[in-house]
From TrEMBL:
Transmembrane spans: 26-42, 48-67, 99-120, 127-146, 177-195, 223-247, 259-288, 300-322
Cellular compartments annotated: Cell membrane
Keywords, sorted A to Z: Cell membrane, Membrane, Transmembrane, Transmembrane helix
Single GO term (MF): branched-chain amino acid transmembrane transporter activity
Name of protein: Branched-chain amino acid ABC transporter permease
GO cellular component: a single term: plasma membrane
Source domain of life: Bacteria
Pfam families tied to this protein: BPD_transp_2
Topology versus the membrane: Multi-pass membrane protein
Main location: membrane
Length: 335
């Protein structure tokens, strides 16, 4: 920032101390480095669950951008997720496009869905009206997956071939884990940088008071579109990973129950917290597995867990981390 830069978004910036910045950086890279040991410690099934955790970390990160950072009650997340999954699956299955291209194309498809979903917000629709409209958008996309049988193969689902990276087939859970871990680390780091930039401050300003933000000369419409598009891209990439992890894409993977799970990840992790998104994705994916041996108890246990966290930690698990160490206190996450 220069001395002549008087933008309100720059004027409120307070640089973190070098020591704290270095600690954050080391902490960020420590987690994926430690995760490299996962395939050596767990069997194939638990590695499969770990792969799903990585998928849902991105789902929660993307959802939290619109819900927590921008403050918009929009529920088009399953539309972003489905668009990414079908785009990746179709490119690989129908056109034999390599995995590394198809996965980013899935992100672009999610970004396109995000752009379409932002149209409702740009029309000044907010709160419950925006929630209903975006819910309808998600259901419309699911209806399309079912009835466009010539392309999506309808309710029976679309088979996705085994992905390969530099000629190496991702035909084991361990191979998929390392590729997914690299993708998640890259996308979460990019999102963290975005939220620390003036763009992230604009999101927060719109969340706090959209009219006051516009009065300061900040183009709120542009930032609303950007938030939806980035959210859609992140969740779209997660959708592509989901297609690779399961080897099949079916419309029922993107129904209202799935949306409730995405919402629970954000709420349990912490609204507006990037670290909370990661925690929420991991915890809500792993929790049902603890009671897999007790049929019928998984849903009950998950419901009790969500109620417990929201009752005693209304700011989510991120608030617990923030109390443990200042390193986990994010600039835009507020107690």
């Amino acid at each position: 920032m220069t001395d002549t830069d008087t933008s309100p978004l720059n004027a409120t910036r307070k640089p973190a101390s070098p020591e704290r910045g270095d600690a954050h950086r080391w902490l960020f890279y420590l987690v994926p480095v430690a995760a490299l040991a996962v395939p050596f410690l767990f069997n194939d099934y638990l590695q499969y669950v770990a792969n799903l955790m990585l998928v849902y970390v991105l789902v929660a990160v993307g959802f939290n951008i619109v819900l927590g950072n921008l403050g918009q009650l929009a529920f088009a997340n399953t539309a972003f997720f489905g668009m990414g999954a079908y785009a990746t699956g179709l490119l690989m299955a129908k056109l034999a496009v390599p995995f590394w291209i198809a996965i980013w194309a899935g992100g672009l498809a999610g970004a396109l869905a995000g752009f379409l979903a932002s149209a409702a917000a740009l029309r000044g629709i907010r709160m419950y009206y925006l929630a209903i409209m975006t819910l309808a958008f998600g259901e419309l996309m699911r209806w399309t997956y079912i009835h466009a049988e010539a392309v999506t193969e309808g309710s029976s689902g679309l088979g996705v071939p085994t992905a390969t990276v530099f000629g190496i087939p991702l035909d084991t859970e361990a191979a998929r884990f390392y590729v997914f871990l690299a993708i998640v680390t890259l996308v979460v780091k990019a999102t963290a940088n975005l939220l620390r930039s003036r763009v992230g401050r604009a999101f927060q300003a719109i969340k706090d008071n959209e009219l006051a933000t516009a009065a300061l000369g900040i183009p709120t419409s542009r930032y609303v579109i950007l938030a939806f598009v980035w959210s859609g891209a992140v969740v779209g990439i997660a959708g592509g990973m989901f297609a690779i992890a399961l080897g099949r894409v079916v419309p029922e993977s993107f129904n209202l129950l799935e949306l409730i799970m995405h919402f629970a990840m954000v709420m349990v992790g912490g609204v507006g917290s990037l670290a909370g998104s990661v925690l929420g994705g991991v915890v809500i994916t792993a929790a049902p597995e603890l009671f897999r041996s007790y049929p019928g108890m998984q849903e009950l246990f998950l419901a009790v867990l969500i109620a417990f966290v929201l009752l005693f930690m209304p700011r989510g698990l991120a608030s617990l981390l923030a109390r443990v160490s200042p390193l986990f206190r994010e600039r835009f996450y507020r107690e």
